[in-house]
Amino acid sequence: MAGRRDRTQQLRGSRIAIAILIGIIIGCVCAVLFPNGFFNSSSSLTANERVQVGSSSCESPARIKMLKSDFASLSEKNAELKKQIRELTEKLRLAEQGSDNARKQVLSLGSQIKAGPFGTVKSLRTNPTILPDESVNPRLAKILEDIAVDKEVIVALANSNVKAMLEVQIASVKRLGIKNYLVVALDDYIENFCKSNDVAYYKRDPDKDVDTVGKTGGNHAVSGLKFRVLREFLQLGYGVLLSDVDIVFLQNPFRHLYRDSDVESMSDGHSNMTAYGFNDVFDEPAMGWARYAHTMRIWVFNSGFFYLRPTVPSIELLDRVADRLSKAKLWDQAVFNEELFYPSHPDYIGLHASKRVMDMYEFMNSKVLFKTVRKDQELKKKVKPVIVHVNYHPDKLYRMQAVVEFYVNGKQDALDSFPDGSE
User: Distance (Å, rounded) from C-alpha 46 to C-alpha 279?
Assistant: First the structure.
């Protein structure tokens, strides 16, 4: 409280000092421009005119020259003082603004508290959700109101190029009775497909930049669109579970989310170390005693399956990624992870978003399945994934079908014929 009071007094003192300084400058200017007062009949004349009038009657040429020189000098000093006032005023405004922002952030997080005993202190992990704004997209708001469950929805983007995989995914969703599933139809073909198969869909209003990629792009190109499309879902106040179409659902994923972070994503990692992080030691023998440098490593979050809470950091993440993808030909997953993990440093402000990596056996990528699980009899029997994402292999459709055969239809050798990687 004492520190806050001191800062308030300092700001008040700064305001008073600036006010006095402005008053002095105004007084000097008025003394030069209006030597006979504001209401004198000659006050309508300019300063130069007054000098000229005076000089014709009672001033010598030398005196006139000196007055002009003094006037020029005062004008120059006056301009410099005005500049200093502007700079001081701007500094004061920024200081007050920064103080106010910090105050608002503190208020939004709650009142100040004392730290508890050793081992009991836990930081805040969950940001507050935004206030929904239905005016952003009333049509989408109506669709989500009808299909969402507990203000959450699965969203998949699709065009005609991925129709076969979409069929496998929709079948898995219907088999589980998941109602809050929505396809963002990127072309007329998928719109008609969803209509004929009783699948909830949403077709965006015409957008040249999105439509060009949406109608003709392949899997990666379409994947990059999601960062622009999902923003409105979050603005409407809905939690979004984004799913690429090369994913088979085997359990309801909403029963396996923690919802304690802004971003909850599956991993491209294939072991505890790669999925959850490890201390990697870099060896540089030329450094002698300091040859070993410790680094932290983690395999990337997969940008094809993640859950976003409707928070400011989540929306900022979408904006950052969409902005970078619009300016350069980049892989969306690389940009997604750079924005999530790069810390603030000179000339860069990092994203302040909380994040959680999903259980790699529940939210399983195809490397884990085909390199590890199918070869381990115990894992093969005991592990029942929530989803399987065929992200590591190009023969996506056939592996998706094999996943269904193995986990749904019980065909024990359904996974055996595939190589670990791609041929």
Answer: 77
Backbone angles phi, psi at 264, to 5 degrees: -125, 115
Tokens of 402: 């094999």
The 10 Å Cβ neighbour count of residue 374 is: 19
Query: Distances from the Cα of 355 to the Cαs of 232, 258, 267, 334, in angstroms?
Result: 21, 11, 12, 16
Q: Enter the DSSP assignment of 149.
A: B
How much of the chain exceeds pLDDT 90, in percent?
65
The pTM for the full model equals 0.73
Is the sign of the CA dihedral 60, 63, 64, 65 positive or negative? Answer: positive
Residue 309, judged by CB atoms within 10 A of its CB (0-12, 13-18, 19+), counts as: buried
Residue 311's Cβ-count burial label (10 Å; 0-12, 13-18, 19+) is buried
The sign of the torsion formed by the CA atoms of 314, 249, 356, 351 equals negative
Q: Are strands 387-389 and 355-357 parallel, antiparallel or unpaired?
A: unpaired
Domains detected in the chain: 134-272+299-362 (3.90.550.10)
Helix (H) / strand (E) element for 247: namely: strand 247-249
Render pLDDT for 268-291 as a digit per residue (tens, 0 to 9): 999 999 999 999 999 999 999 999
